[in-house]
Amino acid sequence: MCYYNITKQIRAMKEKNRGLIIINLGSPNSYDVKDVREYLNEFLMDERVIDIPAIWRSMLVKGIISPFRAPKSAKAYKSVWTERGSPLKVITEDFAGLVKQKVDMPVSIAMRYGSPTPANAIAELEKSVSQLDEILIAPMYPHYAMSSYETALEHAVGQIQNLRKGAKLRILKPFYNDPAYISSLAENIRPYLDKQQFDGFLFSYHGLPVRHLKKSDTTKAHCYSSNSCCEIKSLAWDTCYKHQVKDTTRLVAEQLNLPNDKVVVSFQSRLGSDKWIQPFTDKELEELPKRGIKKLMVLCPAFVADCLETLEEMDDRGKETFMQSGGEVFVRVPCLNTSTDWVNTFAGYCAGIDEKYKQLWN
């Protein structure tokens, strides 16, 4: 594309008074038990996270889970906390700042739980743009799940529409199989492959209750209808977390030429006794050394920014489990975070210049 056309389109973006809001999960204000309990209450009271009637959810969360879980979670948060705050929030802030340099529009961040809120994000954008005509909303979730992508999107859209009824909203779809995203993941992993030989590659994704997958199945007949449902093409794939994470794994493995028999997909961070997607990461970490996989690379592509689930659950507890079970080498590749390739890829999604990314937006 010639320089004139790029300049023309950037000028058009400015004339539209466009702004970008990057949305992530959130974190407590501090690692004090009080703040962690408040955060857990907000998170777990979300009907898309624990999808049972409100009265039972309140009794379960506020009467059982939060009081017992908050002290343990506070200790975990303290172990990963930085001078600037929680890693997830700090990385998201830094990432937004780098993207802002490339898209030539104001950029702000919002969190699904905690702060800043979508209302705060709108106020931040309006420091640069007096009247927002178009707002780009970008949930930082590569894969669709009702407890992550869907709830973050609904929360943000609801607040923004109440505040700016006339603004046009454009929504970034899950980008789990976009070639540029896959390339960013592969390039983030490649340097670690050059340094060490591995027996196996564990792709660990955040877990979900099976009922969430069935609820998200738009066909209401495909999910878990057979053992190979994720490989049978269906309209359900558009909202099927399990299919999407398998697709991400397959595409990354193909780009890096990882042997199929050395690639393992598992699911971490389960809560409660309901039926969750299997296999479980903690169980796999115990069993892999027994199967001869003692030099392990671990990847967590469900997260684009390092957070409690990667830094504490995986780097600390996960590594300890693997090594105590007979493992010899445990290397967890950091999330995409603020890597140059990922910043450029995401800026490409949002800049509105390249035609090939239009299909990623609603």
Strand order of the largest sheet: 2-1-3-4
Q: Tell me, what is the CATH class of the largest domain?
A: Alpha Beta
The description of the largest β-sheet is: 4 strands, parallel
User: What sequence of helices (H) and strands (E) makes up the elements?
Assistant: HEHHHEHEHEHEHHEHEHHEH
| C-alpha geometry | globular
Helix content: 40-55%
Whole-number average pLDDT?
92
Explain what this protein looks like in three dimensions.
The chain has 2 domains: 3-175 and 339-360, Rossmann fold; 179-332, Rossmann fold, CATH 3.40.50.1400. 47% of the residues lie in helices and 13% in strands. It contains 13 helices and 8 strands. It has helices at 3-15, 33-44, 54-80, 87-103, 118-125, 146-163, 179-195, 210-216, 241-256, 281-287, 308-311, 313-324, 340-351; strands spanning 18-26, 107-113, 134-139, 168-171, 200-206, 263-268, 295-299, 329-332. The strands form 2 sheets. Strands 2-1-3-4 form a 4-stranded parallel sheet, with helices on both faces. The chain has a 4-stranded parallel sheet with strand order 6-5-7-8, with helices on both faces. Strand 3, helix 6 and strand 4 form a beta-alpha-beta unit. The chain starts with a helix and ends in an 11-residue tail after the last helix. The relative contact order is 0.14.
List keywords for this structure.
single chain, 362 residues, alpha/beta, Rossmann fold, 4-stranded parallel beta sheet, globular, disordered N terminus
What secondary-structure arrangement, pairings included, does this model have?
Elements (H helix, E strand, L loop, with lengths): L2 H13 L2 E9 L6 H12 L9 H27 L6 H17 L3 E7 L4 H8 L8 E6 L6 H18 L4 E4 L7 H17 L4 E7 L3 H7 L24 H16 L6 E6 L12 H7 L7 E5 L8 H4 L1 H12 L4 E4 L7 H12 L11
Parallel strand pairs: 1-2, 1-3, 3-4, 5-6, 5-7, 7-8
Helix pairs in contact: 2-3, 4-13, 7-9, 7-13, 10-12
